[in-house]
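Reminder to self: keep the SMILES exactly as supplied, no canonicalising. Ligand is magnesium ion.
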Amino acid sequence: MLAVDNIQVFYGAIQALHGISFEVKEGEIVTLIGANGAGKSTTLRTISGLLRPKSGTVKFDGMDITRVPAHKIVKMGLAHVPEGRKIFPDLTVRENLIMGAYTRTDRTETAVTLEHVFQRFPRLKEREKQFAGTLSGGEQQMLAMGRGLMCKPKLLILDEPSMGLSPILVEDIFKIIKEINQLGTTILLVEQNAFMALQIAHRAYVLETGKVMLAGSAAELREDPKVRSAYLGDVVDIA
Amino acid sequence: MGGGEKPPPRFKNRSITAFSGFGPLYRNRQHSLLGVDMGVDVLEHVIGQVINGLQLGFMYALIALGYTMVYGVVKLINFAHGDVFMVGAFVGYLGFNQWGMPVPVAVLTSMAVCAILGVVIEKIAYRPLRYAPKIAALISALGVSLFLEYFCSLKFIFGPNYRVVQRPFEEVHWQLAGISISNIQVMVMVTVLFMLLMLQYLLYRTKVGMAMRTVSLDHDAARLMGVNVDSVISVTFAIGSALAAAGGVLYAIAYPQIQPFMGIMPGLKAFTAAVLGGIGIIPGAVLGALIMGQVETLTAAFLSSQLRDAIAFGILILVLLVRPCGILGKTETEKV
Ligand SMILES: Nc1ncnc2c1ncn2[C@@H]1O[C@H](COP(=O)(O)OP(=O)(O)OP(=O)(O)O)[C@@H](O)[C@H]1O
Ligand SMILES: [Mg+2]
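Structure tokens returned for the bound complex:
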């Protein structure tokens, strides 16, 4: 479904990605884990067209999307829920969700999707007419995910959905991600919370300073001593 | 003899209009509250001035909206906006005075021409600089402004001199309960209110309006929704410029003398209005414009017409010092 091949990305003169390659197959949950600044968000932003790689290619659904502008990539069925949620604070919850369906033209179908999103996130239904900026952090995350689902994506990209949420909410969010996947949406998940991510993912890639250091099934990486000490260590400490 | 005669002092003329703004408005008006007839007459006089101020304020509003909408989507002050207003006034004037168009057709033609002009300005002067330091776009804006002024002053364009606009209809004054109101004032206010309603509808009830609102909040987030940010920016320039054009045509009818530098002062006043209301905030632009209209008219009527501009720009400085986010702006969260 998604194939990233040897992408190199620069911010001005600074190189953030030094040739990253990985793939996501249909139906999978794949997670990218790595420390702060490893290049996870940069990778996602390159996939969704917000950044252009200097070299390398991104293929989605068999098509080369490396040079396709972001707004067209959405239309092809790729939704990116960005780091920090990036909801529209001055729009109502409902308007935010409607914006998620911006590329869709069929109103009745869109209304059905909206109902599904409201069923999945009843909180959003309760706060439908409220300005999104007044939502709590957890509600904003639900809104961002709900908005991503509004375009009925084939591939849903999530950048740190658990950031800043309470442990209980984190559990909820991961449960919902798993459910969305089981209903047929492929998921690419970036997480700081490697412990949780490796529990729901099928496969994982470990990024370090703009390179893929390790790759494997989530089960394998959970047992990997390097991963355990570098990314699961502090989680174990807290628990 | 012949060669010795000096051409009319063009430049002097320009600076007079540029800095005297709305001269014709205040002619034949009583200037002092200290006149003999206090009481009812004074009240009527005040109300008459308030109506004059409304007319002026509504025209400022049409210009101020363009500043604020463009600022909303690209965080840039389009200093050429006042000159788009000027082009609008000229096209409207040519429409109903030279080409024999009915006024509404002249207005629409002028709006269409300026919409295209606005889009072209953005494409040529601002888009290449979108990711450059802000100062580059600012200088580019000033360049476009000067270019439009001097280009339109060329003989084969509009020429450097004043043109007297033949009003397409007679000005009629009505007396309503002792208050005088003219058909032109009614036309200005009705037209502007209609355009404000249309704009409101566009922004809050249509897809492109919603896209404009998201682009003004966050370009990348809008892109991730599938919004083509470049086209939304073009549409915003088109709408803002079309509104300024409508303002220009109304202006040419209300104050029937036009020349290529006429956009400077109304442009700066409308910019002040947008800052006063809160730049980037649409109701703020209208509110600021109405306040500016009143302040200016009432200052001219009851203090001194020479103080008018000083006070108008005093407001700009005061707002920038005391409340840079404007009346309706949010204080805590500086918009990105
Ligand atoms: N806009 C930018 N300009 C310059 N450098 C940037 C920019 N954004 C990111 N970087 C740099 O690129 C590198 C990768 O950043 P990125 O945001 O992709 O990391 P990340 O893995 O998502 O980190 P985090 O877990 O903190 O979100 C970092 O060194 C960062 O400083
Ligand atoms: Mg990140």
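Points to follow up:
The interface with chain B takes residues 48-50, 69-72, 74-75, 79-80, 82, 86-91, 95, 98-100, 102-103, 147, 151 of chain A (CB under 8 Å).
Residues 1-77+155-161+185-231 of chain A form a domain with the Rossmann fold fold (CATH 3.40.50.300).
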